[in-house]
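Issue 218. Parser rejects a valid record. Input:
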Amino acid sequence: MDLFEAIFLGVIQGVTEFLPVSSDGHLLLVPSLLGMAEPDLNLVAFAHVGTLLAILVYFRRDLWQITVAVLDGLRRRQPLATTNARLGWYIAVGSIPAAIVGLLFKDLFEEIFSRPALAAIFLICMAAILVAGERLHSGHKSLEQMNWLDAILIGLAQTLALLPGISRSGMTITTGLGRGLDRPAAARYGFLLGVPAIAGAGLLALLELAQAPDLTGQLPALAATFLASAVVGYACISFLLSWLRRHSLYGFALYCAAFGLFYLLVAVVV
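Output the parser choked on:
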């Protein structure tokens, strides 16, 4: 893969990791539509690490405050005394379902990832989920008002994002809306919940990357992918949080449905 394609891959990952449109789905469908080779796994690994850097930098204050609050709560033997401490435990508990399902059914998900048409179908399903989330939006709870049931249900919903075409941010946001959170709160919690998931995926990919025999020769392309995904990912986090203060998810639902249908039509014709 040349330098341009590496940057292009990083941009796709940076945009679609955080917008509710599925990064894995786009990494399968876009290269397939453009006649490009299947993305190199090493580049995909660095793209994920780039988006991890974006979310760590953007939410650095939140993550620091949550970490300090959790440690202070343990020291005081009052682990749930503050909002930030509770958020830390909610994130920890909410990350468990996706980790377990991902490890238990790793081979199944790898098989699904080899079939772009399934990703297109799941993308259309994602459109329906986004619409349902908006229709179920029933309140204006803040993060301070979250409870354990909210955290567990949002964490369970995140497991569906292991399927290509199903957006992790889309699942967490829509489930949050269904539980009564307002849009900015649902999005912010969804991003924070994504830190362990994105970090885990990035770590596993980097471990595999360390065993690659031609790593040195790939460094320019890897660096380009990493930087593109980090910069674009940071911008998209900021965009989505701003967008959801004034707008709904319907536009993203329309996009998911249109893109999924377009891919299936092209696949049938070609």
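Fixed in the parser; the record now loads. The mean pLDDT is 89.
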